[in-house]
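Suppose you are handed only these lines of text.
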Amino acid sequence: MLLKTVNLTKYYGHFLALDKLNIEVREGEIYGFVGPNGAGKTTAMKILACLMNASAGEAYIDGISIMQNPAKAKKLIGYMPDFFGVYDNLKVDEYLEFYADAHNVPKSERAPLIEDLLQLVNLSDKKDKYVDTLSRGMKQRLCLARSLIHDPKLLILDEPASGMDPQARAEMKFILKALKAQGKSILISSHILPELSEMCDRVCILSRGKSVVSGNMDEIMEAMGRRAKITIGFLTDEDLQNGVAVMRTNDYVGQMVREGNKVEAVFNGTDEDMSKLIKAFALSDVRIVSISKTVQSLEQIFLEVIGNEN
Amino acid sequence: MKIKLNNPIISSEMKIRMRSWRSPIALLVYIFILVVFLLIFASMALSTMRYGYNTADYSEVGLVIFYTLSIVQFFIIVLVAPASTAGAISSEREKQTLDLLLCTQMSPTKIVLGKLVSSLLWILLMFIASIPLYSIAFLFGGVTPMAVVTVMLYYFLVSLAAGSIGMFYSTVFKRTVTSSIMAYLTIFLIFVLSLVIGYAELFFLSQRNVYPDFANAFYFNPFIAFLGAMSLALQGATGTNIFSVTAFQLKTLVAVNVVFLLLLSALALLTSISRINPLKGRKR
Ligand SMILES: Nc1ncnc2c1ncn2[C@@H]1O[C@H](COP(=O)(O)OP(=O)(O)O)[C@@H](O)[C@H]1O
Ligand SMILES: [Mg+2]
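From them, the structure of the protein bound to adenosine-5'-diphosphate can be written out as follows.
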């Protein structure tokens, strides 16, 4: 386990911003932190980056307590906040050189390191340009390079995709996957679940400072129930009546709506449960002409989870 | 263990400063101001000398040039030092780069000292640029190298104190403008209050027919102490003393003021360091 938090808690005055957060990030994985604005993502990340005291709880990075030994922990963490702070009057390579120096990277190692990082974030041709001449997306990539300058084991990226156009987003995703392939662990936050679901090995959905559910996407779907919408077409009106009767007795069928000789229903079961339902139709001689099933999107699930919390 | 004295902030701030076209212009304007004052006071000294009896003693002119340069430079430094640190932390906050500095291996102490030394180095450069003008004073005589060294040390002390005050306010206020204004206000109060209280002191004592050479509050006035220090350094050369007090009293004045300025700087800097430490209060 590379990162482990134990009941991490943060109060701003009397306001509870983070409520006993327990997450575990494994070596070499991308871990997503999802929650609406104000959920406490930034708060948790700032505590992990040693930029804020927690009110209670502990956090360990590679076995080192960030509370007891922040200086050592900082060596293992690369942090990219939800804004990009840059010094406009420095050139791109000078900017990275400055942070390399601040991280005590030996002078002889800096030049090749900066070359490599600029290559990684696709800014090699901007090396001698002043930072203020870069576009937003480029600045963001430069900031990513900065957070990597001391070769940290864990990257903490606070909403790196916000305010980016789709192309910049795709580029960022590509870079993050390359970093994962290099063995880096990444803790990344977003207020949009689908943005992370494809890239992350596991996610934690956060709402009002609490972890609502966490795990890989399958586990999250499992925990949420496999909510799907099924639409069944019946041959005759009689078949429809019988079919509805069968569905009423099925535990996994929720609300039903009739439309012509079709019935639309919420289905909460697994694939196996679905096959059982189809078998039940057959056993009751219900004649079916069509069946379709659409799984609810992650975004819908996400909104529902958060909705239930509020 | 090797102790790393290098501070990334100093090298990068110097780089940025030296690259800007504003720096040589600022230095030029600064030298120009010094030259203007020097010409005015030197010509005044020369003209009074011409009508005097003692036409051979040019050392009076040398001293006038020395005092003019030193005093004008003193006030410019008092104005420049807080301005150059008042944005030290607040501008990092404005640019949102403070957190980025704090999550490096740089400690809050190193950050604050790096910013401070950068602005002190700039003031040192200003002083070095003015040295050719001091050579004019030496040409006329009456000035000792010791006096120039004294002046330089006092500049260091005053810019340290004024710079530390600017630094303190830059950790308090989010905006550089506000922290500059507060720094100037504080420094102005130190200069003016020590004078006003000092004269009030002398006035009340005179009501009781007590006439001390010196008011206690004057010990805290950096300018009075600066004059005292110069006077002390020049005494070997001139045998006169601008406050007509004993050398011992003069030494006490300077010593008290030096301690006061050092304590003030230490207090302001330690507070600044603690204010930017995001993990303060955490038990180690
Ligand atoms: N410095 C602060 N003082 C008081 N409340 C804060 C502070 N920072 C954040 N909060 C509050 O804490 C909650 C969590 O904020 P944050 O961690 O920024 O959420 P997120 O990053 O998920 O949007 C929000 O309700 C926010 O208003
Ligand atoms: Mg946030």
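What can we learn from it? Residues 8-276 of chain B form one domain. DSSP finds ten helices and no strands in chain B.
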